[in-house]
Amino acid sequence: MRRLAVVVGSLLLVGGAVLVVVADQERATAVAAIRTQIAQVEEQLDASRGDNLLLAEKLTALRSQIAEQDAKLADTTGFLK
């Protein structure tokens, strides 16, 4: 009976160790995948910042044009022609 208990206990111990190793490998894989996703999101964020700067420049130019047109429309005396 003792031998059976020792064998079963050893198998349980080895099985537990295997489970810990497998869980650690899965965790490491998940962490690597998340780091890859973070890098991709950071690249997308950098790209969108560049796009936003270009759009902000266009918006500024359009606002300047609108201000000029508003000034022309508001000029009732005709001096700004």
Written as H for each helix and E for each strand, in order along the chain, the element string is H
SS element count, helices = 1
User: Roughly what percent helix?
Assistant: over 70%
Total number of beta strands: 0
- What do the pLDDT scores average to? 90
The major β-sheet equals: none
How much of the sequence lies in strands comes to under 5%
- Cα shape: rod-shaped
Q: How far apart, in Å, are the first and last alpha carbons?
A: 109 Å
Q: Low-confidence segments, ≥5 residues, pLDDT <50? A: none
What does this structure look like?
The protein starts with a helix and ends in a 7-residue tail after the last helix. It is built from 1 helix and no strands. The protein is rod-shaped. It has 81 residues and is an all-alpha fold. The longest helix has 73 residues, at 2-74. The chain has one helix at residues 2-74. 0% of the residues are buried.
Topology:
Blueprint: H1 2-74
Question: Could you write a compact summary of the structure shown?
Answer:
The chain has 81 residues and is an all-alpha fold. Helix content is 90%, strand content 0%.
